[in-house]
Design goal:
mainly alpha
Amino acid sequence: MARQIRARGLAAGRSSAQIAEEIHEKCGPQFGTSRIKGHRLAHGIALADVIEQVRALFERDAKPAPGIGETLLSAYESGLKRPGPEYLHYLCTVYRVEPVALGYEGPCICGHGHKMPGVVRGDLQEGKPDTSPDPHELLTRQVGGKSSADGGEEDENVLRRTLLGLLAGGAATLDGQVLGSVESIRRRMDDTLVSATVSPAMLDQWEEATVGFGRQYMNTPPLRLLCDVLLEFSSVRKAMERRQPVDLQERLCRMAAQLAGLSGMIMVNLGDHRMARSFFRTGRTAADETGDRALRAWVTAREALVPLYYGDPREALNLAKKSRDMAGQTPCAAQAMAPVVEARAIAMISGAGKKDAVDQAKRALSRARAAFSQMPAVDQEDLAFGYTERQLYFHQGDALVRLGQAMEADLILEQALTKYAPSDWLDPALIRFDRAKCKVIEGDLGEALAMAKDAIVGLGEGCRPDILVRRALEVAKLIEAKAPDYPGLKDYLETVHAAPAVEPVGLRDFDPV
């Protein structure tokens, strides 16, 4: 029937889009022919032809070969799945129509029309160049509105491919494609929280997985952990698309808040403060749904680290106080964490040598120690969602270093190092850089340089996030301020920049804190 409609349409001089619409109207009621399938039949081509055209477009745009095949395209045509933003763009390019003509609402991610000549098929060429935007821009541009019906599967596939590459020992960076998928998954969770029956057993498994990610936070390369966390985050979002019983919905919201907060923490380590803020905002939305003061305070305390490292420490101080107020008298991680952030922010605002600032910061640290002693034991052992003794020692030492209290800070930092396992690398490296700063303050530049170099050289593949590179450069700047031509400083800087770091997109314009 479609072949006959096409033949008559061509004879009558009708366009492929008009023929496709007629095929859908006449074949749909009897055979369930979708709009997207109608366009393929209107062009008189097979599934394999469409796949080859899509692959040719990917090759033209200097992108890796796509994972789309005949099975996936058939699922699109049968309505079992919906193409994600990237594949939808290329299918629109092949058929030279807008998404609505293929049966999908909303604009294409490219932001311009597809009804243009010179796209793919030789019989339609008119010699005009393709005006589609840069592929990197396509992947990172976001479009508002409803989330796609495919549940973000192609965004998950991007993360799966990245994870598989990392597991195979390959190199991976937080490029535009990965960043676009990360933001898309986060936005879908926002949409679900604003708009929105899973079994208790499945909830138990997700909660165990969430706790497991917290344990991996200190000893797993951040980009790899981010892929794992966001795949679980996406699964939780799918479960929340339908409103659950109150008790199950609360558990889902709790996991959403924890996973969003953990993603924000990873983004802080990767150096993308904008994405970190977005995740913490999503985490706050989810935490508000639970009514749990301790959880809301934890998200806010973690969010305070963004301006502490990448913005205005005054904002970090305000967020820390807000977190402390949220926690109230409830013994929880935020009750201890928030005063420590206060102390570190005070130290950064005032700098070294000011007695008032030292006294104020030490009072905050004293409150933190008192709150820590009242915390439940389970929170004292949780690296990500709680607050451990070793983190308390580390952050106290960091505050004291910034206040210029080198001797006291070095003793506390040395004690903190003994509490970390050999497999932990993130905090121990930060501690070693802080100890190197202590040596600079004491005037032992050689020991400081050796200590900092050992810290950077000891980091494994994929274990050099932006936050560590910044700290390494802080040590160099302190040494340079005391002795600009100090022997070995140039060699140290070359070592810092030699190995590839886990580097996000577009963040090289920020100076180290």
